[in-house]
Design goal:
This protein has two domains: about 120 residues, no CATH class; about 80 residues, no CATH class. About 40% of the residues lie in helices and about 20% in strands. About 5% of the residues have low confidence. It has nine helices and nine strands. Strand 7 and strand 8 form a beta hairpin. By secondary structure, it is of the alpha+beta class. The longest helix is centred in the N-terminal third of the chain and has 30 residues. The structure holds iron/sulfur cluster (SF4).
């Protein structure tokens, strides 16, 4: 009987682990969806990326909209994430109840992460996953602790930011003069114009894959 129970426990553990990996794998799948890029990204602009950690994770001020399928995958990895959350956020709901339609989300619906007052944050409030002690995202810290890619548990729109999707779902960037005056926009002025494709190379590689990214880079260089 004892052996039977032990085997049953092992089987349950393996099943739970496989389910966890299946859902986390779903996040990878979602990012592997074919994405297209607006010609806007072939431009050169006098901007540069934010200077984390000096920015204090300003972009986490309003939380983020998360696809329902991503929420399921994040919840499935809860045991890995919990130890990296601020202590006062561990027992809180991570996502707000209200659902919104999103034509670019895989499930078609999104929910926003919970936002908390945070005196330590440069703008006085932040996403439930934002950590006051180092301004890092608990989802990223949890993935790194597993030896995974830092973005493996991160919501799609967090990785994308400050890039955006246009009405056709193509990856783009809003008008930079507006972004530069928006708190938490993750952009700073630069002395010289640089190709947007190069500034956002890590994100574009992640979403497009190496081959498509190289094609995009060549197209941007041909524009110069
Ligand atoms: S999920 Fe992480 S990166 Fe995204 S807004 Fe929240 S703390 Fe910031």
């Amino acid at each position: 009987m004892e052996l039977f129970l032990r085997n049953l426990r092992n089987l349950w553990f393996l099943f739970a682990k496989a389910e966890q990996l299946r859902l986390i794998g779903f996040l990878e799948l979602m990012r592997a969806l074919p994405r297209t890029v607006s010609p806007r990204l072939l431009a050169r602009e006098p901007v540069q990326r934010c200077d984390f950690p000096r920015c204090g994770g300003a972009c986490c001020v309003y939380g983020v909209w998360v696809d329902l399928q991503e929420i399921a995958a994040i919840r499935q990895a809860a045991a890995l994430i919990q130890p990296h959350l601020p202590a006062d956020a561990r027992s809180l709901p991570w996502f707000q109840e209200r659902e919104e339609p999103d034509p670019h989300a895989l499930s078609g619906r999104v929910r926003q992460t919970t936002v908390l007052p945070r005196a330590e944050h440069p703008l006085g409030q932040a996403c439930v996953f934002w950590r006051p002690q180092d301004a890092k995202c608990a989802l990223q810290v949890a993935a790194e602790a597993q030896g995974w890619h830092p973005w493996r548990l991160k919501p799609f729109y967090c990785i994308l930011h400050p890039l955006d999707l246009d009405e056709q779902g193509r990856i783009t960037l809003d008008d930079t003069s507006a972004l530069l005056t928006t708190p938490g926009s993750c952009l700073r002025p630069a002395a010289e114009p640089q190709p947007l494709v190069q500034i956002f190379a890590p994100e574009l590689r992640w979403f497009l894959g190496e081959t498509a990214f190289r094609r995009l880079l060549a197209a941007a260089q041909a524009e110069e």
